User: Which sequence fits this backbone?
């Protein structure tokens, strides 16, 4: 991969982060958080994507981002009020922008018709001051066209892109009185590399009042000596307006450290005249600024206009599609600021003074980008280190060395060091589930629009960390479960109103740690599972026998069968009998489980239980009928040797163990996995009291305990096949292969079938 391609890959990685920031900011605005910082963060995200796209010649992306940015520029300058309708259109525009980024990444083609329609809506909103034009009015003006050569901010050709034809001889401007400020602005290379634009900064200064701009090219070398990534030009700006120094510094606060700014002059405090509104209005009509060639953006006049911009009336062709179903992210809303027009912004009270440039500023947390293959290789090496450390420990035990010998003590230190290295490496690969959760609001909006339902998505535990390999495979099952919750779980608005529920349905997506595993919950407050209908459909599709007697839990689990669907018609969302069976296969492939809890009329909760990592775990090594097995330590509550009188029979084959005035079902591991067919008394072995994911307890019977060890997880499914009751395999210190028990699956097996097998069946021929 050449250098340019590597930079392009980095650009698209940054686009993913910027798109996430954009969506988070818009969702915050939708919840009522419309402060200046939120709006500026949204604007910066779109502007940065546009600047980087221009450097790579991604014209469709640049054109759409430019229209998007223009509207956001009006929002942050208080010319366009933040309304629910406006934010809804901005969210739709963010989706289209994400489509453009994806198309550019994969050399694909975006839906040009949908993109053009959305661009027209954004242009109409910009021209009408954010007012939504009713369908059937005047067509909005065509979206301005911008080419990559109109962009500034690329580190590849920072100054060559910007035309400076009219900067040397600025037009004379009428003075508004109050003294003039002189702002010397010298960009650094970092300013262009971070996709910032000097032209936008000059426009921000123009909003404060009339400006004249002079270019300083004294440091500009000859063409042969020019570094295309360096910054050579400086700007001297004369601002003739009754503003404070803090207001000028506020223009440059987002590029602090990327440029040198010197502010001099200004009016004397005692001589600052009162604003003459009539004079300001007259000056606003005549003041002009000769700047770079137009980039198809509306001309920005000084912020003194009293009358709002004209409203674009609707036209013959409908511009915006029908208003989609509303989707919200639960938050603690704060009242949005009241904007009273452009005149108010012209006479607003001075802002607090920005901190001096030499004042220490908290540094952002430094990060580095590492190829995932290198981390995976490091994880593999740590696994081999753990195995070799276990082998050394085994050799020391076999040699009969005393535990106080120098070799044994050194081996103990090596074990501690190995564990610390393993924990550190696993922390490197651990990622918050936020990266998956952030993709779901858009999905919820799309499905809500398609179903005509009003949905609120509530997310919890986004900072919960899990192994990268698990994160990468969480997207598909969560997607299917959310679609199922909206399409099948939530009622229509009329049905919810009739049931006395809020019209807006709630879907909850949560992540939490529990017992050394990560638990993902997807719940809704809908109708719940109609078990009679599920049973009838399963019989109709011949998935179960007509006379089958099933519990509520077993009926609920029928929806995971391949080909099962409760949809009466096939749509873009469901009806083909795929979805939930995909979820179960995906979860099982990760060594996890999925369960359902549903109450008719109240809703359903799908719970995914997954391992935190697919690399290493702490386990208890036990002997079972001559086999060596590993039981995850996180599932074990305690171990004990029961007395004969503490074991009570239950039914023809079952038994329970009395533990501190409560009874716990006994599960003989050897019988359950088919290692032994004869029945052995539990008090002759050792019992491991375990806690299952559903909170229930069980007692696993083994022959003996070898000890506690850290083991490296090896996939049994990829090397052999999936075996019920077995989660994975590992290599012991003596080189033997040991199976890792899936305790929840083992307990579920005994619940389903309380009869023991008559012969070993674990590795029977397929």
Assistant:
């Amino acid at each position: 991969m050449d250098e340019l391609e590597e930079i392009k890959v980095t650009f698209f990685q940054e686009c993913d982060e910027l798109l996430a920031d954009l969506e988070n900011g818009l969702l915050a605005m939708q919840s009522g958080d419309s402060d200046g910082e939120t709006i500026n963060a949204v604007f910066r995200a779109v502007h940065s994507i546009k600047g980087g796209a221009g450097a790579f010649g991604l014209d469709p992306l640049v054109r759409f981002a430019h229209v998007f940015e223009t509207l956001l520029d009006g929002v942050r300058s208080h010319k366009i009020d933040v309304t629910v309708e406006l934010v809804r259109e901005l969210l739709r525009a963010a989706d289209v922008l994400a489509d453009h980024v994806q198309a550019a990444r994969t050399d694909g083609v975006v839906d040009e018709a949908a993109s053009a329609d959305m661009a027209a809506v954004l242009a109409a909103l910009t021209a009408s001051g954010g007012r939504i034009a009713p369908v059937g009015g005047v067509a909005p003006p065509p979206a301005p066209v911008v080419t990559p050569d109109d962009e500034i901010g690329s580190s590849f050709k920072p100054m060559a892109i910007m035309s400076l034809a009219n900067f040397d001889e600025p037009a004379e401007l009428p003075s508004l009185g109050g003294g003039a400020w002189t702002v010397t602005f010298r960009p650094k290379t970092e300013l262009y590399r971070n996709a910032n634009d000097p032209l936008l900064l000059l426009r921000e200064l123009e909003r404060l009042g009339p400006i004249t701009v002079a270019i300083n090219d004294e440091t500009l070398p000859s063409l042969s000596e020019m570094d295309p990534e360096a910054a050579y030009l400086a700007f001297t700006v004369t601002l003739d307006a009754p503003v404070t120094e803090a207001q000028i510094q506020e223009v440059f606060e987002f590029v602090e450290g990327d440029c040198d700014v010197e502010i001099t002059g200004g009016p004397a405090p005692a001589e600052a005249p009162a604003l003459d509104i009539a004079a300001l209005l007259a000056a606003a009509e005549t003041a002009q600024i000769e700047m770079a060639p137009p980039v198809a953006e509306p001309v920005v006049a000084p912020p003194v206009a009293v009358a709002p911009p004209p409203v674009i009336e609707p036209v013959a062709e409908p511009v915006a599609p029908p208003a989609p179903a509303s989707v919200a992210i639960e938050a603690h809303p704060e009242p949005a600021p009241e904007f009273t027009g452009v005149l108010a912004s012209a006479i607003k009270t001075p802002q607090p003074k920005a901190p001096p440039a030499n004042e220490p500023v908290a540094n952002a947390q430094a990060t580095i980008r590492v190829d995932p293959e290198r981390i995976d290789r490091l994880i593999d090496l740590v696994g081999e280190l753990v195995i070799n450390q276990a082998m050394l420990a085994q050799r020391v035990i076999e040699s009969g060395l005393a535990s106080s010998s120098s070799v044994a003590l050194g081996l103990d230190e090596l074990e501690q060091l190995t564990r610390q290295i393993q924990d550190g490496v696993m922390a490197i690969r651990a990622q918050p589930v936020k990266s998956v959760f952030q993709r779901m609001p858009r999905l919820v909006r799309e499905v809500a629009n398609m179903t005509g339902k009003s949905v609120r998505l509530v997310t919890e535990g986004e900072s919960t960390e899990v192994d990268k390999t698990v994160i990468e495979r969480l997207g598909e099952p969560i997607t299917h479960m959310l679609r199922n919750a909206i399409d099948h779980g939530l009622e229509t608005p009329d049905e919810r109103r009739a049931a006395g529920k809020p019209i807006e349905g709630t879907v909850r997506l949560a992540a939490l740690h529990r017992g050394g595993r990560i638990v993902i919950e997807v719940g809704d407050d809908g109708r719940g599972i109609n078990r009679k209908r599920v049973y009838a459909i399963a019989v109709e599709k011949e998935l179960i026998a007509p006379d089958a007697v099933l519990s509520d839990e077993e009926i609920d689990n029928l929806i995971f069968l391949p080909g099962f669907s409760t949809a009466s018609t096939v749509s873009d969302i469901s009806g083909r009998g795929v979805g939930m069976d995909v979820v179960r296969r995906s979860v099982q492939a990760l060594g996890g489980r999925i369960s359902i809890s549903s109450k008719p009329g109240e809703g359903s909760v799908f719970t995914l239980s997954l391992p935190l990592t697919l690399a290493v775990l702490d386990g208890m090594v036990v002997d079972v009928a001559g086999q060596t097995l590993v039981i995850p330590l996180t599932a074990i509550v305690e171990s004990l040797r029961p007395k004969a009188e503490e074991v009570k029979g239950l039914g023809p084959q079952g038994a329970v163990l009395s533990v501190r005035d409560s009874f716990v079902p006994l599960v003989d591991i050897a019988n359950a996995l088919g290692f032994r067919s004869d029945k052995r008394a539990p008090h002759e072995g050792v019992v491991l009291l375990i806690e299952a994911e559903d909170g229930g307890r069980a007692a696993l019977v083994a022959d003996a305990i070898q000890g506690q060890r850290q083991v490296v997880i090896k996939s049994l499914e990829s090397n052999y096949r999936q075996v019920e009751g077995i989660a994975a395999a590992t290599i012991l210190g003596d080189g033997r292969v040991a199976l890792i028990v899936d305790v929840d699956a083992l307990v579920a097996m005994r619940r389903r079938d309380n009869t023991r097998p008559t012969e070993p069946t674990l590795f029977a021929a397929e």
